Amino acid sequence: MDPFLPKNHEEKFWRILENRPRPLKLKSLFLETSSSENIQKIFKNKFLAPKILKNVQIGHVDHEAIDQKLEILEISESDTWQNLESIGINGFVIWDRVDQIFSENNFSKIFVTIQEIRAEDILELKENLLSHSSLDHFHFEYINFPNSNQLSIFFGNQLMENRRQRTNFCYFQTENSQKLLSFCHNYSKKHIDFCLIDRFMLNDDFEYII
């Protein structure tokens, strides 16, 4: 079964899920929906086998729609969520704190938009990611970042700036001596990225590693 369903098949999709005698075994789910309630239903109901589903990509059926409010703290405690490896959500804005819903190390890829992010959230997330060996790329777009100036206090002189690209960035040594955690904040485009890079990608005399 093709997991991608266009918007005109949305009602049929839910009818199939609700009438199945057992959870649907999908490794990846690509869903376009017009309602944040449908996203809640995916995780709160046992429609999909949680140990099988690894990748979820969700988008709004109206690609020009204003981002809708989405609260996922409750569903982040579900087995389905905690077994995911990759999630991407477009057209919806998450109103929960980043460190509360992405604190576990099960995710390797994240692409979401957050209503508000704080420097404390980034610091907490960074600490968790230092031991995250399967990290690929975490990308957080945000609407508000009220205390972004606190980043320079938390990270000190190691927080560098590229004024041309309007970014702040720094590197952290992970538990693996050959891997670094890369942090980048694009304050012009309002997004934050974490990813793992190989240590040899930087010069041996590079001093700005925390």
From TrEMBL:
- Which residues does the UniProt record annotate as the domain DUF38? 11-151
Pfam families assigned to the protein according to its UniProt record, in alphabetical order = FTH
Q: Which domain of life is it from?
A: Eukaryota
Under InterPro entries, the record lists: DUF38/FTH_CAE_spp (IPR002900)
What is the name listed in the Swiss-Prot or TrEMBL entry for this protein?
DUF38 domain-containing protein
Organism for this UniProt entry: Caenorhabditis nigoni
Upper classification of the source organism reads: Eukaryota, Metazoa, Ecdysozoa, Nematoda, Chromadorea
